[in-house]
Design goal:
Blueprint (H helix, E strand, L loop, with lengths): L20 H24 L8 H10 L3 H18 L11 H11 L2 H14 L4 E7 L5 E7 L10 E7 L6 H4 L3 H12 L2 H10 L7
Antiparallel strand pairs: 1-2, 1-3
Helix pairs in contact: 1-3, 2-3, 5-7
Bound molecules: manganese (III) ion.
The site of manganese (III) ion (MN3) has 7 residues, from helix 1.
Length: about 200
């Protein structure tokens, strides 16, 4: 298979002022594109690593192919990340998702605080996640660099990119401000709910 850079699902300036056109131009056109290009270069020299991006990630992980894993993992993370945001994001959660968040974290406010905390306490580059376990229970996790919930047998419902390239142009070193803006003004809860309604993904191991 070959990786393809998807178009952003909105205009470059659509998330302004919470995420600027300049950030999205660099983040999508340079960073995400580099994961796609470098991943494809590595794949060219290898035997079949799988038919889907998910299979490639899990096979690269199993074979300790760090170069492929990092690029394939980041391609997957960013493909979803663009959809985890929307113009005029934040706001209310669709009903079933709201109920599940309340059941797992007591309240949305508790969930919001814990998600931001996960993003703040991830040392260096990585991702903060809302995941669904195989038993359907929700949990907040964080991963370093390109790692994602797939390798932990978990279904990603929401992920926030906390690499500096995601916020440094707009927020400089103020990662807390970025995480708050992500939660309050950027999250596309309809996309999160769509993943939630599909239930736990089946991962072939
Ligand atoms: Mn990124």
């Amino acid at each position: 298979m070959t990786f393809e850079l998807p178009e952003l699902p909105y205009a470059y300036d659509a998330l302004d002022p919470y995420m600027s056109a300049e950030t999205l131009e660099f983040h999508h056109d340079k960073h995400h594109n580099a994961y796609v290009t470098n991943g494809n270069k590595i794949l060219e020299g290898l035997d079949d690593m799988g038919d889907t991006l998910e299979e490639v990630i899990l096979n690269a992980h199993k074979q300790n192919n760090a170069g492929l894993f990092n690029n394939a993992g980041q391609h997957w993370n960013h493909k979803h990340f663009w959809n985890w945001m929307k113009p005029n994001g934040g706001g209310d959660r669709p009903g079933n998702l709201e109920t599940a968040i309340n059941d797992s974290f007591e309240s949305f406010e508790c969930f919001r605080g814990k998600f931001i905390e996960a993003g703040l306490t991830q040392f260096g580059s990585g991702w903060a996640w809302l995941i669904m376990n195989a038993d359907g229970k929700l949990e907040i996790t964080k991963t370093a660099n390109a790692d994602n919930p797939l390798t932990h047998g978990q279904t990603a419902l929401l992920g926030c990119d906390i690499w500096e390239h995601s916020y440094y142009i707009d927020y400089r070193n103020a990662r807390p401000k970025y995480l708050e803006a992500f939660m309050d003004d950027l999250v596309n809860w309809e996309y999160v709910a769509e993943l939630f309604e599909k239930g736990p993904i089946k991962i072939a191991t």
